[in-house]
Write a structure and sequence with these properties.
Length: about 525
């Protein structure tokens, strides 16, 4: 079998497998809870939130298409910044992605447990979604099962994921078809189409669950070295999975808004998520669609579990790549050559996922943090691609993004805006934490590098702490839980302008041309 550049990964994944991984990772617990949360924040304009979020992620996905086709490496999301900007970028991306991916596993399993409680009972002990002991043990058992599936190898993982993802698509299709039959067109203008203005749309994208729901790009790239014909397969699978997910999310939100009983909207859109804690299940019950409610609960258990399975696989490969970059413990490079699985990285992934179920018991608790961390990780794609275009112009690029000079900085600006929209309460500690990590790592590296190599590392990575500081300052000045010195329009303009400056800086300070890095 063809192997990864350094290990024994097996190229067994085709286009259908990869598209199912992409759609399955995007389409997890987001559709189960986010419809009510974004309706709370944006009213009928929540449909616009899904559209903007989908277009934003598609733009970033197009940049990833170029990178993924040119450098189909295991755990690629870490390897791109390493190739473009060196070890500091690799370390920060590895840290952000590992934390976010591993916590996503627990978020998805917690979501499955919360919905299962509507059927089984005794798994959730309060309205905040905290688990009972039995509920936590069920979560633990599911994670053990996912660990066992992934330890068997990529072939077994892909087969199970394909079956689960097809089912995940069929049930939402049924939900849309039945709820559209109960459509109330007046709901879309009741209390105004956008009762909280465009700021409500922005908040829904960042904190309501829209950006969280779309955060499924990188699992495709994490298994890039296990894909047959990756130069063709990766771009097609990325675009297909994002487009399909965006279409389903838009239809689900439209059906949800239109089918809401009028008695729930008497006092406006606020409080919808409180009254419908399990949105599509609860609305099906209110409409007397008992069969649909049962199907939603069944899919609500299976769908997030399937997404958790994907992130169990993806996180292990990110940890492997992080270790491979030389910025994390080398023990996690070890492979089970018989199965083609990074065993040590997979075991760490299981431990981290289990840990995240302890202090963060509810689905809503972590989505702002996870969305911000992963969006920052995604922001590394446009800067990496721009730097590589300058430093490695002769690198073979089977997919070359047209209008790159416009689309790459635009994707970076949009990612930066979504981070800002998450709000000061999240960024006031996330950004300082990243700055501290940057300082610690750079101080450690300084002692191991020669003066010339240290100067190159500093030159290629200094833009990152400046970027984090700038986002922190703009968040404090902005209207999203900040001081309100800038209204949402001027705050958006300032963030976009700042992002364009940073993108240009990052593009011009990449590592010098190293022809061997593409195959190292």
């Amino acid at each position: 079998m063809p192997q990864d550049e350094s290990g024994h990964f097996r190229q067994r994944l085709g286009l259908f497998d990869l598209t199912m991984i992409g759609f399955g990772s995007i389409f997890g617990s987001g559709w189960l809870f986010a419809a009510a949360h974004v309706a709370d924040m944006a009213g009928p304009a929540s449909i616009v939130s899904w559209l903007i979020g989908g277009v934003a992620v598609l733009l970033i996905g197009l940049v990833y298409c170029e990178l993924g086709a040119a450098l189909p490496l295991a755990g690629s999301v870490v390897r791109y910044p390493e190739q473009a900007h060196g070890s500091t970028a690799a370390f920060l991306t590895g840290a952000m992605t590992t934390i976010a991916f591993s916590s996503l596993i627990s978020i998805e399993i917690v979501a499955a447990r919360q919905y299962a409680d509507a059927w089984i009972g005794g798994l959730t002990r309060n309205t905040s979604g905290d688990p009972t002991l039995a509920g936590w043990l069920v979560q633990c058992a599911i994670m053990v099962l996912l660990y066992a599936i992934n330890r068997r190898g990529i072939g077994s993982f892909a087969l199970i994921n394909n079956i689960v993802t097809v089912f995940k698509f069929l049930v939402p299709t049924l939900v849309v078809a039945l709820l559209l039959a109960y459509m109330h067109p007046g709901n879309f203008s009741l209390h105004g189409f956008a009762p909280h203005g465009f700021q409500g749309v922005e908040t829904a994208i960042s904190a309501g669950g829209v950006s969280f729901a779309y955060l499924g790009l990188t699992p495709i790239l994490s298994v890039a070295s296990e894909v047959r014909n990756p130069q063709r397969t990766i771009p097609i699978a990325l675009v297909a999975s994002i487009t399909l997910a965006m279409l389903v999310y838009l239809l689900l939100q439209t059906a949800f808004i239109g089918a809401l009983p009028s008695n729930l909207l008497t006092d406006g859109w606020n409080g919808i998520a409180t009254r419908l804690t399990l949105p599509f299940h609860d609305i099906a019950v209110q409409l007397g669609l008992g069969f649909l409610a049962i199907m939603v609960v069944l899919d609500a258990v299976l769908s997030p579990t399937g997404t958790g399975n994907i992130y169990m696989s993806a996180t292990a490969r990110v940890v492997y790549a992080w270790s491979k970059s030389g910025t994390f413990f080398p023990v996690f490079q070890r492979m089970n050559t018989e199965r083609g699985v990074p065993d040590k990285a997979l075991l760490l992934t299981f431990g981290l996922a289990l840990f995240w179920t302890l202090p963060f018991p509810s689905w809503q608790a972590l989505i702002g943090v996870v969305s911000s961390a992963l969006m920052l990780s995604y922001a590394m794609a446009p800067t990496s691609a721009a730097a590589l275009r300058r430093s490695q112009p002769d690198l073979h690029r089977p997919f070359r993004l047209p209008y790159f000079a416009v689309l790459s900085p635009l994707a970076f600006a949009i990612a930066s805006l979504i981070v800002i929209w998450t709000g000061w309460n999240t960024l006031c500690w996330l950004m300082p934490a990243l700055l501290v990590l940057t300082g610690i790592f750079m101080a450690t590296v300084r002692r191991t590098l020669s003066a010339a190599l240290w100067a190159q590392e500093l030159r290629s990575s200094l833009w990152m702490p400046v970027y984090f500081l700038g986002l922190l300052g703009l968040s404090w000045c902005g209207p999203f839980q900040g001081a309100g010195l800038l209204n949402h329009v001027w705050d958006d303009v300032a963030v976009a302008a700042f992002a364009l400056v940073i993108h240009h800086w990052a593009a011009t300070c990449g590592l010098q041309d190293q022809a061997d890095t593409a195959t190292a």
